[in-house]
Amino acid sequence: MTKGKDDKHFENMIENAQELYFSGATAFSNWMEASQKEVRENHAFTAALSSDLVKNLSSMLLQTKPIPALDTFMGADQNLSAFSKASIEFSAAAAELHALIIAKFVESAENYLAQGDPESESEDRTIRAWLSSTNSDVLEFQQSKAYLDAQKKYVTSLTQFQKSYRALVEDFQILNHLPTQSEIDDISKGLHDLKREVRTLKSHLSKGMEPKK
Amino acid sequence: MKSRELNGAPELSDYFEKVSKGFENLSELSESDIKIATSKKHVVFSSDKVRLFKYEKLEGVKSAKRLPVLVAYSLIGSYKMLDLQPDRSVIRNMLEAGLDVYIIDWGKTNRADRWLAFEDFILGYMGDCIEYICSAHKIKSLSLLGVCEGGVFAACFASLYPEKVKSLALAVTPIDFHADEGAKLKPDQGHLNRLLRNFSRQELEEMIDAYGQLPGEVSGFAFLEMTLVKSLTKYQWDAIDSLSGDKKQVLNFLRMEKWLVDRPNHPGEAAKQWLIDLYNENRLAKGEFELEGKKINLRNLNMPVLNIYSRDDHIVPPPTSQALKHLVPKQCNYQELELPAGHIGAFVSSKANRAFSSAVFESIPKLPAQ
Predict the structure, then answer these.
(1) How many domains does chain B have?
(2) B44 inside domain
(3) Which of B1, B115, B185 should one mutate to test binding to chain A, selecting the residue with the greatest count of A CBs within 10 A?
(4) B112 in contact with A at a CB cutoff of 8 Å?
(5) How many other CB atoms are found less than 10 A from the CB of residue B186?
(6) Residue at B247 is within a domain
(7) Do B237 and A152 touch (CB under 8 A)?
């Protein structure tokens, strides 16, 4: 065996084998990586698909239950709109009434100052004199049509605000299967009428029994 | 301006001294010091939330041998006003005079009581209380004292059942709710009447229906609004004076405040009758007010009638009470007493409440011979 030639051949063979191994390992690794990526992508796809299916199924199932339909939603929507409108109108009426009162206070103070030198030996007496003058002016103003109408507007807008708020609350109660204030009022009305009937009956009975005593 | 600058400092010093004294007074007082309605009483009859109390006789006081008196207060406030504190108590005055005194507590109504109407309070609860008292004392009729809205209740009952009311006393009671129109009034009088006439029936109905009742805080606010400046300064500028006086003065102030915050709700249907039928449409004076289909005719008031009103009443203007004089029958023994006080002052002003109690006592007939 010629050592040199054989050794060279062996070394080449080992090198080739090593290259082949490394290239094979790299290829395998690349394949594995690619496969894993594909699996991951497939999994995500599958999950998304499942989720969509569940969602679709839920929608289908929910649509078979007595849930708020479009008209119910629109009713709530309209009530919300009415509530917002009433709220704005109430705020405006309150601001209008307050503005009238403040304007009267200012006017009264100006009149008081215009009457002459409010200088007094006592700060307390000065303030009390000013308050007394303002009190007279405000009481007189409270009798005016402007004040009474502003107050009426305040009260009626507050009434509308209360009514619209109650309509909203009752929507919520109906959708959540809770007894509404109107239903409770109906029950208490029935009970009240019943009590009156019992009272009348008792009265008739006692009158009927009187002659027997 | 010089004098103001010179005097400003001592006044400021006085002011802070008052603030300090006010805090000192408040720190020394507790809830138990601010008791109201302390005259001893016990429940003798009850129906739903309504209770009939009988006041216990004072030790050492002999019976006046007069008919028992039933007191009916308004639904707007608490009956405790009539017994605010021992030295300002109409109830105590009557007990000291040896009377048998009963009072109706209408109870703390809420939205569940929204359907209660005048019919329930007058023909039902008040009628039952009167029946109980007559039965307990073995009498056929008693003396009835109604205050404000309670006075309207009493007048309605007495006109429907005159045989059950031997004498009728009304205090600060509006009868003709439109009598303020054209009358010579003080600037703070008649506001509530004018205000409620400015609404339509429908507007008032909707307002009450929106709450289902007339909430206590709403009527409380309406009373504050009647005298806007005084209400604003009461808890600001004047509060220091109210709280910095001697202990007795501070307690007087706090007891009144305690009564004021205890404002009951007014049942819805009864509120409609009060605000619409009476205030807005004046049906009682017109002879159009009905209870269970029966018209209230004040010409049926054939018993002695004592009508007490307050000269400075800013809630019930005197002409609205005085109008009764023209609505009772000619043969009625009708008497009036004008008190130099306000709506509440009639009961808590020491001078006015003595005059009030004395007049009521004199109006109560003696017990019939057994």
Answers:
(1) 1
(2) yes
(3) B115
(4) yes
(5) 13
(6) no
(7) no
Contact B100, B68 (CB under 8 A): yes
Contact B228 A119 (CB under 8 A): no
**Which of A122, A136, A185 lies closest to B212 in CB terms?**
A185
Q: Is residue B52 part of a domain?
A: yes
Question: Residue B86 is part of which domain span?
Answer: 35-215+265-363
Contact at CB, B124 and A199, closer than 8 angstroms: yes
Please give the model's pTM, rounded to 2 decimal places.
Answer: 0.84
**B235 interfacial to chain A (CB closer than 8 Å):** no
- Chain A residue numbers with beta carbons less than 8 Å from the beta carbon of B206 are 156, 159, 163
Q: Is B148 a known active-site residue?
A: yes
- Encoded tokens for B69: 């008196």
For residue A121, pLDDT over 70 is answered with no
- Interface predicted TM-score of the whole assembly (ipTM), two decimals: 0.88
- pLDDT single digits (tens) B105-134: 999 999 999 999 999 999 999 999 999 999
Joined together, the tokens standing for residue B244 give 């910095």
Å between A54 CA and nearest CA of chain B: 46
The CATH code of the domain that includes B201 is 3.40.50.1820
